[in-house]
Amino acid sequence: MLFDTDVPVFVQRGNLKAAKKIEGENQRLISVQTYMELLQDARNKLQHVEILDFLKTFNFSVLPLSENIGHRASIYVEEYGLSHSVRVGDA
After folding, report:
1. What distances in angstroms separate CA 42 from CA 27, 39, 49, one per listed residue?
2. Ranges under pLDDT 50 in the chain
3. 23 vs 7, 16, 50, 80, 87, CA distance in Å?
4. Cα angle for residues 54, 90, 12 (degrees, 5° grid)
5. Can you name the residues that pair with 28 across neighbouring β-strands?
6. What's the Rg (C-alpha) of the chain?
């Protein structure tokens, strides 16, 4: 299953429902965008290491952005950026 940034963040904040969802999946995937968002939110080196350890412990695989994904994301930002505040990370 492909997880968005909020799910690992919820787990790290102690949300048991989110933790059970991750634990219940055999294949755990995040996009490289999510990977960067998680690391960007670290407030210090210790939290940075904790995020990396979390991803390793749960065997997350990081998926690259393909040309097709980048193209679709740009279309979503163009179409919904102003009307629905869709930003790059969400597109």
Report:
1. 25, 5, 9
2. none
3. 12, 10, 18, 33, 29
4. 20
5. 60
6. 14
Query: Which residues, in sequence order, are CB contacts of 65 under 8 Å at separation 6+?
Result: 31, 32, 33, 73
Q: For residue range 22-31, what is the model confidence (pLDDT) as tens digits?
A: 999 999 999 9
Please tell me the pTM assigned to this model.
0.79
**Euclidean distance between CA atoms 52 and 65, whole angstroms:** 20
Type of residue at 86:
V
Burial readout 6-20 (b: 16 or more C-beta within 10 A, e: otherwise): ebbbbbbeeeeebbe
> What is the dihedral angle through the alpha carbons of 6, 85, 70, 54, rounded to the nearest 10 degrees?
-10
Structure tokens that stand for 85 in this block:
């505040």
Q: What's residue 41's pLDDT?
A: 87
